[in-house]
Amino acid sequence: MKIQCPHCKAKFNTPDEYRGKKVKCPKCKEQFEVVPQIDVQKEISQETLSDDSGFTTKLLIAVISGALCLVVGLGSGVLLTIPNRGKTKAEIATLETKLNEIQTAAQNKVRSAETETARYRDELKRISAEHERINAELERTKKALRASAQKSESSDIKANPPPVEKHEIVKLNYTVLSENIHDVPIKTQVELNILVSGDISDTGLRKLLNELYSSIKARTGFQYHTSPTNIYIYAFTSKDRYESASGQWIAMLQKSPGDLKPTISINQHQIAQLGKKPEKRFGLSEEERKKIWKEIIQIEDNALKEAEEKFPDQPEKSLRVGQVFRLTKETPLMPELEPADPLKAIGKIQRLTPRTTIKVLEVSMPRQTPWYFVEARSTSRKLLGKGWINSIALVGQGQADLKKQIEKQINLERILIEEHKNKIANKYGLTPEQLKEISIEGISNDWPMPKPVP
């Protein structure tokens, strides 16, 4: 945009955003309001201003430009003196008239623009005010609707409260089958076996085991530790499952010293079987099939035991009371089975040399490992002492050929099982295939195993 300083008449360009603002002239340093310079050359017809010499046109442009600058820029009524370069009075009068017309037109345009701008500003203010009023009214309406909805919802809740789902955990009944406490320097272990009954569920079992755990953990009065370091709780649904000694629990909790919290395991297969309706198969009830199932397991256990006794693969693990065994390498003889002070007991260990003869006086099975209480004699039959020998220490000291012993053991076990199963099939009028299906059913449904043969 081109502007002209009304004080020093200097001309220069300025951005449009300065329109209507006061600026300082870079030449005379005076302040003035920015008004665009009017291009009067576009306002005057070329036909009106043209002559042969071009002097009249140039004079008219100069006069009109100066007049407009005075009228628009200064806004004053300074008289304009039109230089006379030999023109007639009529020509000068015509130019003055034209100048007055241009001045009037320019002033009218400025006034019209100002009036229109003021009108637009007033309309904008009116629209803005109306917009604010509508927004305020809309916000008041929203608040009123929310308040009404909340009041209605509150009234509905009071009148018709929604049903509350109750997940009540049915407390299970239980009886203690056994409790074993193992209190030694390295640990104080409590093992609890219980029989559960009632409405058995996963949640109910977990709740019961956690309650029992908290009760056991709070116990005191032990010799080596202030409270139990190891806790094991086993829950059974029948005494048969407990007596089977086959881990047929429905739920189990265990906590060892290294555990941050107790671990609970649930036998989901047993839970699924609780509500199952018994069915009749092969003309036999479920209880009758369970009885046959126990007989099958017993003959298999008996056959294995008989085969192992006759052809032992590890004779050192199957010694019986009164049996004599000759050592083939150095073997430790412990003074006690589970000494109260293990470090002190180590100093009392006696080392038996090869060719020493031991006679079994007692057999113990802590943690399913045979220990033998024996008397030891030298080759000269001199008594060397009495104590405990771990069967593991005897491994490799047998004289039997291991491969041949196992082959004989397997053959004998198969013959015995087949012989006894045929007797059971004949007894109940079943085919070998039906007997096999009963065996599979017992394993799939986790039926109680028979008591282990001592």
Would you kindly provide a written description of the structure presented here, covering whatever features stand out?
It is a single chain. The protein is α+β, with helices and mostly antiparallel strands and 454 residues long. It has 3 domains: 38-122, no CATH class; 173-274, no CATH class; 286-444, no CATH class. The protein is built from 10 helices and 15 strands. The protein has helices spanning 46-49, 55-74, 89-159, 202-217, 239-243, 268-274, 286-310, 342-346, 402-428, 432-444, and strands spanning 2-4, 11-13, 22-24, 31-33, 173-184, 187-197, 230-236, 251-255, 263-266, 324-326, 331-333, 350-352, 357-364, 371-377, 383-390. The strands form 5 sheets. Strands 5-6-7-8-9 form a 5-stranded mixed sheet. The chain has a 4-stranded antiparallel sheet with strand order 10-13-14-15, with no helix packed on it. Helix 2 crosses helix 3. The N and C termini lie far apart (116 Å). The relative contact order is 0.06. Residues 39-85 and 162-168 have low confidence and may be disordered.
